[in-house]
Design goal:
The protein has about 325 residues and is an alpha+beta fold. Helices cover about 30% and strands about 25% of the residues. It is built from eight helices and 14 strands. It has helices spanning about 5-10, 15-30, 40-55, 60-65, 115-130, 150-155, 225-230, 290-300, and strands spanning about 80-85, 95-100, 100-105, 140-145, 155-160, 165-170, 180-185, 200-205, 210-215, 215-225, 235-240, 240-250, 255-260, 275-280. The protein has a four-stranded mixed sheet. Strands 1-2-3 form a three-stranded antiparallel sheet, with helices on one face. α2 (about 15-30) runs antiparallel to α3. The chain is elongated, with a radius of gyration of 35 Å.
Amino acid sequence: MRDPYQVLGVSKTASAAEIKQAFRKLAKEYHPDSRPNDPKVAERFKEISAAHQLLGNAEKRGQYDRGEINADGTPRAPQFHGFQHAGGGGGAPFEFEFSSGGARPGGAGGAGGPDDFLSEFFSGIRGAGRRAFRSRGEDLKYTLAVSFLDAARGGKERIKLPNGKTLDVAIPAGVKDGQQIRLRGQGGEGSGGGPAGDALVQITVKPHPFFERDGDHIRVSLPISLPEAVLGGKVEVPTIDGNVTMSVPENANSGDKLRLKGKGLPQAGGKGRGDQLVTLQIRLPDGGDRKLRDFVEEWGKQQVYNPRAGLKI
């Protein structure tokens, strides 16, 4: 991998805010969604994300600046020069460097001699270094907007991660606005063989045209006609499970509240469901009705009552 500073186009003295700003600008420009059929864009985005994962972490950035790890986060094996035989005597110096097989002497030596001892010594350092730099990947945060009904009833939503990977997220029934869902192992890659981080998905619930959440209950305002209010009767009411029939009592008024048991949202711990609270609203015919007006006018001459009597101070 290239130098992460060059990848993000920032200097080695750049502040954390400057690194974050550079990453956001490049991530927006090279996001795979912008050019889904261009593999070079996806590769460039991966490179940008990896660079930010290293430089955006203060500890990893410090290790990289000190030469302790490579640009991909793996430990960088140091080189040692100029070791000589303990016996002195003008022998050629030993030069050691780390290879895939451990420490390798650059000079002569036989079995059981200084070469073997130093080889084991530096091999141990190399193994310890690898363990020291093994670290867990970063947790990555996302926001997912879901409909009111999907949040109430549960379901699945597909999200696309910045690295181009798609995931199906299970939405639990009754999830709340702002609630976070953790996807294990779907975050940033670990360093030195460490485990990947998690993806943290924050849920945003979209508002519904007529349903409103109230804890585990659901509130809805239900328009009813004048005859239904005066005479009572059976009316259809929408719920998150579909329409149900509800009885409206005689002489119902706007603002009266009726309760549909168990038609709300799932309660925590599987203890059942909340209720749906229905508020009645009397609605007259659009545009008015001449016969109704004449009837009420005549009826009003014979009936005198004050619906605002209770508002007197």
